[in-house]
Design brief:
Keywords: ATP-binding, Coenzyme A biosynthesis, Cytoplasm, Nucleotide-binding, Nucleotidyltransferase, Transferase. By secondary structure, this protein is of the alpha/beta class. It has helices spanning about 15-30, 50-65, 100-110, 135-140; strands at about 5-10, 30-40, 75-80, 90-95, 120. Strand 2, helix 2 (about 50-65) and strand 3 (about 75-80) form a beta-alpha-beta unit.
């Protein structure tokens, strides 16, 4: 049964996050998805980002809406970008263009430890209606909503 890793801060659960999470569950099939959620410590007290527990609750609510059985996933605290993927056995890692370099680093570390590389599943950015990627930063700035719909005219 496949063991799939996906990770992020998940400040605002937007359509890009949804695509990553959905892809992870699709690949896992009868296996299990391990969702690494960035710890407060790793964020180095970035006050614009909600605390770990609030982000975890929102993530749990989102997965519950997907009607995924609790035994099919586990949310783990990420205290570093690689999390448990360098030590534990995983089959896949699902990444965005932003996190792809971390997956390459993980595989280099795994190789040095004599472990099999993870199969990297690359998921493209989800674009907002203006043709640029949906991101939590853009949502926080009030440019777009979680689905990429423009909220106001950008300042030129």
């Amino acid at each position: 049964m496949p063991k799939v890793a996906v990770g992020g801060t998940f400040q605002y659960l937007h359509d890009g996050h949804a695509r990553l999470i959905e892809k992870a569950f699709e690949i896992a099939g009868d296996g299990k998805v391990y969702i690494g959620l960035t710890s407060d410590e790793m964020l180095q007290k970035n006050h614009s980002i909600d605390n770990y527990e609030n982000r975890r609750v929102r993530l749990l609510e989102y997965i519950d809406e997907m009607e995924i059985p609790k035994e099919k996933y586990e949310i783990t605290r990420l205290n570093d970008p690689c999390g448990p993927t360098v030590e534990e056995d995983f089959d896949y890692i699902v990444v965005s263009p932003e996190t792809y370099p971390v997956a390459l680093k993980i595989n280099r570390i795994r190789e040095k430890k004599g472990k099999n590389p993870l199969e990297i599943v690359y998921v493209e950015y989800v674009m907002a209606e203006d043709g640029t990627p949906i991101s939590s930063t853009r949502i926080a700035k009030g440019e777009i909503d979680r689905h990429g719909k423009m909220k106001r005219e950008s300042q030129a």
